[in-house]
């Protein structure tokens, strides 16, 4: 009996010592909801799969850029990066999903300039301020104003003059809340064009509508229309980028033609508001690492004539804010 009492006393003492040691340790081995060590400032992150939400359909340029990054990020971070497409409401459905997600570093948004346009056009009541910006991680190969080859105008100036002479008869297709919508309104506001803006949700739908004669003008990613220009079905009136594109040196920008409408479609990565800054920093560094990989550069060049672009978090916040101000300047015209 005495031996049992001694053993019990010894076990009790050991248990008490373990409790005291755990208290002295300050909980350094405990994890927060995101799985990151609380006193490590998120540096143990990630410890599970990251869900990257793309608010555009599968197979497009945004989806391609997200999936290409995701593929290489897995090697850098050591965890799977799963891409989920949530479409609808001009992209606002997907961005809202991320905005309302837990700020644990395991849900992020891969979007672009349309985040600001969604706010300017009123389909979303928030912009980048509702998120924690990770980085600007890429730039599209550009978009262009495109018409059928037999259209009676060859320049942006001629298109505008024709629309003024034939008010509301020239139909321009626009995806509500997206770049094509914003650009169409800017043409009517800034240049007094008299274009009839009609809804066509996807870039593929806009191409089909132009081919079928249902609309007269589209504003589309160049990758979706180049084959039709080459075949002689379509022609370019101008690119919407701020500068001429290296691979389309003969196509002038709208700005060069005296038309005050331009935008550069850049890709953003954002977290829900409130993510540990250490996680944000680590995620941004991971994107930077991928952006410098030769194989990544080759992949985006082959698919969409893109070249790598990366801005750190501080640069990205300033850039997106400037872009937002540009888009929001036209907000009243969408009411």
Automatic annotation (TrEMBL):
Annotated organism of origin: Oscillibacter valericigenes
Family statement drawn from the similarity comment of this UniProt entry: Belongs to the UPF0065 (bug) family.
Entry keyword set: Signal
Range of residues in the leader sequence: 1-22
Pfam assignment, any one: TctC
SUPFAM superfamilies: Periplasmic binding protein-like II
Lineage of origin: Bacteria, Bacillati, Bacillota, Clostridia, Eubacteriales
Name of the molecule in the record: Tripartite tricarboxylate transporter substrate binding protein
InterPro entries: BUG, Bug_dom1
């Amino acid at each position: 009996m005495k031996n049992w009492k001694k053993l019990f006393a010894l076990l009790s003492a050991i248990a008490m010592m373990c409790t005291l040691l755990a208290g002295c340790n300050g909980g350094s081995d405990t994890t927060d909801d995101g799985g990151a060590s609380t006193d490590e400032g998120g540096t143990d992150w990630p410890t599970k799969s990251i869900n990257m939400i793309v608010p555009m359909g599968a197979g497009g340029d945004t989806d391609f850029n997200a999936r290409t990054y995701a593929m290489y990020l897995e090697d850098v971070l050591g965890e799977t990066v799963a891409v989920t497409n949530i479409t609808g409401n001009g992209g606002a459905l997907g961005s809202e999903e991320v905005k309302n997600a837990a700020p644990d570093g395991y849900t992020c948004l891969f979007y672009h300039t349309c985040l600001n346009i969604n706010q300017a056009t009123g389909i979303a009541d928030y912009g980048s301020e509702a998120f924690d910006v990770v980085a600007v991680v890429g730039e599209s190969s550009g978009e262009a104003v495109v018409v059928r080859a037999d259209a009676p105008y060859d320049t942006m100036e001629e298109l505008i003059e024709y629309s003024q002479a034939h008010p509301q008869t020239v139909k321009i297709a626009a995806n509500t809340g997206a770049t094509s919508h914003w650009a169409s309104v800017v043409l009517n506001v800034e240049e007094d064009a008299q274009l009839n803006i009609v809804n066509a949700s996807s870039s593929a739908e806009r191409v089909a509508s132009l081919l079928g004669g249902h609309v007269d003008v589209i504003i589309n990613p160049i990758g979706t229309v180049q084959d039709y220009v080459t075949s002689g079905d379509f022609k370019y009136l101008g690119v919407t980028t701020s500068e001429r594109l290296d691979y389309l040196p003969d196509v002038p920008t709208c700005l060069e033609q005296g038309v005050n409408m331009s935008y550069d479609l850049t890709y953003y990565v954002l977290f829900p508001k409130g993510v540990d800054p250490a996680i944000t920093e680590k995620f941004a560094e991971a994107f930077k690492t991928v952006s410098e990989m030769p194989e990544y550069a080759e992949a985006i060049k082959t698919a969409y004539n893109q070249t790598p672009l990366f801005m750190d978090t501080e640069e990205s916040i300033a850039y997106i804010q400037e872009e937002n101000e540009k888009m929001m300047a036209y907000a009243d015209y969408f009411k």
